[in-house]
Amino acid sequence: MSAGSSTRLVQLTHPDEGRRAALVYGNQLHLLATYRSVYSFAMAALHTGWKLRDALSTDLSDIELDYGEVHRLATPWRFLPCFDHPAEPGACLVSAAGPPWQYLGSGASLRGHGDSIPEAGCGDLAAVYVIGREGAPRRVGVTLGQSSRASVLGPELTLNADLARVDSLVKVIREGREVWARSFSGGDAPLALALAAVEPDYFEAAGPRRFGDAHVHFFGERIFGAREGIAAREQDELVVEFPGLGRPLHNSMRSEQSADLRVEAVPL
Question: Staple partner for 154: which of 124, 143, 173, 216, CB 3.0–4.6 Å?
């Protein structure tokens, strides 16, 4: 990792190896040795006072994977959301910007690159956090994604939010052909300044700031403004790209077997 370069992490799972976290190193994924999740790695850095980038060099294994093959889903490895709370999904709050802030679910609702989703959402930008002592939020990184009934995080979590500007492209692929595409721009403000302007609003309430909790917040509407929905249908492939935030996110549209139900609460 050279100074000033972008540092990105992914989370993977394997039928035999189980959950792993890895550093993106060019066209390779360099598996971490000790920490099996970005959350546990972030909490260790929080406890020790180390910067995440500095701590990475102390926990790299000797195992490397071909990133291209893994991204194409051509190996047994599959992507997890690039950030979650693996031990306690209920301690991960997933939300989105809008008037007012919208609760989207717990960490159990998160999906990742290659997963099927029930409906298309707008291409979105998510920032992820852990809560430190005395309720202090600490930003772990940013990622591309989609927010709708399915909260989807991109394959890579970028630790250093130093993009000069934020632009995105969303595409719909149908039977191998691109049938719809839209680009969105966050203007000329650097990403770090854009986040600094909106994060205090999100973290104003003290209640959700419990030590050890994780937060995933989609800031897209505050940064990009209101956007039109995606013209997608069953079996379409959705692609979200953000220059500077790693490889694109691919998901297929698939109806879920179990529909949401209105359930009556029965008094005890």
Answer: 143
